[in-house]
Amino acid sequence: MIGDKKIGFIGAGAMAEAIISGIISAGVIKSDQIFITNRKNQERLDQICRTYGIPAENKNAHHVRQADIVIIAVKPKDIDLVLQIWGAHFFAEQLVISVAAGIPVTYFEKKIDRVAFIRAMPNTASHVRLSATAICGGTLANSRDLDLAHRIFCAIGKVLVVKEELMDAVTGLSGSGPAYFFYMIESLEQAGIEAGLSRDVAKELILQTFMGAAQMLYMSQKEASQLRQEVTSPGGTTMAGLEMLNRYDMKEAMIQAVLHATNRSKEIEKLYASECKTEE
Ligand SMILES: NC(=O)C1=CN([C@@H]2O[C@H](COP(=O)(O)OP(=O)(O)OC[C@H]3O[C@@H](n4cnc5c(N)ncnc54)[C@H](OP(=O)(O)O)[C@@H]3O)[C@@H](O)[C@H]2O)C=CC1
Ligand SMILES: O=C(O)[C@@H]1CCC=N1
User: Fold this and answer.
1) According to CATH, what is the number of the domain 7-170?
2) Which of 4, 72, 90, 245 could disulfide-link to 115, CB 3.0 to 4.6 Å?
3) Is 8 helix (H, G, I), strand (E, B) or coil?
4) How far is the CA of 260 from the centre of ligand 2 (A)?
5) What sign results for the dihedral spanned by CA atoms 233, 237, 240, 245?
6) CA 26 – CA 86 distance, rounded (Å)
């Protein structure tokens, strides 16, 4: 789907691996078209190469520099160093995609003015090709660049093109979203055990229940609230359970979690946006 283009990853952590796993299993790219590098952890690079059949010689910064598409997947705090080291090597025909939370596309453009940048916010469900990814393009990103990014992320889930001002909310909701889900599962596992089930049985029941509920919602025309009501018999067990979720204000906790995560992304963004301004 992306022909013989090469994709290079700067950063070989959790997010890079999720994307690599997803794009290889989707068949949009062959393992030997992927190149990776990180800061120092060679073992990690070896492990990724072994797991995804990437040739050992592809874990090479020089090759990553030559890639048609470069995906920057380092922590926000490491972006500056990456731009310092890599800045001079980016070339005009390259497309650079950053998945870093909170770093505005203008920040990249201020540092390197000749390259098309795209900011993307996927999530780790890229592993299983069920990511929810939002993308937005910088000033040099044309429709072909956006289309290319769209094709890459489409292969590993759903893609929405959004205005950059919405990226913090996307980050707080769906970028961090898998963690909220896993936290709920952890809590429900503990609940199942306290109710008398073994961990394994609890885990199996919860997972199947969540997958079933998500699939129902995905396939039906009904709102979540309606499906919830259909489970809730008057005076029954669900009502008793929901009473506790209301008493402990689970809804407010979820809202605050997403808003807090969104604000954290905004804080990071502000840090970098202010540097863009002072350099003007
Ligand atoms: N994890 C997630 O769910 C999501 C993460 N993101 C974003 O993805 C980015 C990466 O996150 P994540 O994968 O979790 O982080 P990890 O800590 O798992 O991985 C970061 C990687 O960056 C490498 N790195 C650090 N500095 C450099 C450098 N100067 N040059 C090359 N490589 C470097 C590290 O190498 P080494 O180990 O050698 O130090 C490591 O391989 C973040 O910006 C995050 O905001 C976006 C969406 C979801
Ligand atoms: O926690 C983080 O900062 C990253 C961004 C979204 C998910 N993980």
Assistant:
1) 3.40.50.720
2) 90
3) strand
4) 12
5) negative
6) 29
Mutate to test the pocket of ligand 1, among 38, 103, 133 (most ligand atoms within 8 A of CB): 38
Domain boundaries, the chain: 7-170, 177-248
CA gap 120, 117 in Å, rounded = 10
Alpha-carbon torsion (237, 241, 246, 250), positive or negative? negative
Q: What would the pLDDT profile of 136-167 be if each residue is shown by its tens digit? A: 999 999 999 999 999 999 999 999 999 999 99
161 in Cβ contact with 149 (< 8 Å) = no
175 CB within 6 A, ligand 1: yes
What CATH code would you report for 177-248? 1.10.3730.10
pTM above 0.90? yes
Please indicate whether the domains covering 7-170 and 177-248 agree at the CATH topology level.
no
56: Cα separation from own chain's centroid: 26
User: Residue 267 burial by CB count (10 A; 0-12/13-18/19+): exposed, middle or buried?
Assistant: exposed
The string of pLDDT tens digits covering residues 161-190 is 999 999 999 999 999 999 999 999 999 999
Quickly list DSSP for 201-225. Answer: HHHHHHHHHHHHHHHHHHHSSS-HH
Protein residue with its CA nearest to atom 30 in ligand 1: 39
CA distance 193 to 74: 38
